[in-house]
Amino acid sequence: MRLAKDFYARDVLVVAPELLGKILVCKVADEFLRYRITETEAYRGVEDLACHASKGRTKRTEAMYHTGGVVYVYLIYGMYWLLNVVTGNENDPQAVLIRGLESIYGPGRLTRKLQINKSFYGEDLATSPRIWIEDDGFAPQHSAGKRIGIDYAGEWKDKLWRYYVVNLPSIS
Length: 172
Prior knowledge:
By secondary structure, this protein is mainly β. The chain has helices spanning about 5-10, 10-20, 105-115, and strands spanning about 25-30, 30-45, 70-75, 80-85, 95-100, 105, 130-135, 140-145, 160-165.
């Protein structure tokens, strides 16, 4: 049920909507928490002015240049870690921001609930003992819209690269 590395080694515009309905598993203390992914956003390479990679390869963005399947986390507003899943091939920086989980709305809220922080940076989702994504075969209906909070990105702000689930049943 855990997604293999090859799932992530594809274009972000394929992976981002396909992550919807998958189950994010994260170890918190001695418990594994499981939530369906309900909202994602795609960030696609150096040409995408909303993508961190558009500013160049830096220590912060290094994980985005790896082959898909690793975690890219970064801090915003000095208080919220945001969880991203790297996609694509090596040296082609792409990532999917996990914006929402079942009953947890907002990328900062979900990382707080799952206690995701800088220590997750670069974690391999295919082999990690504390975070991974599973597929139980559920493929929800979804819709697409504009990404949120990127008004600075010129024409890139209008891309319909935010994906969200419509009518999600509980995994409980």
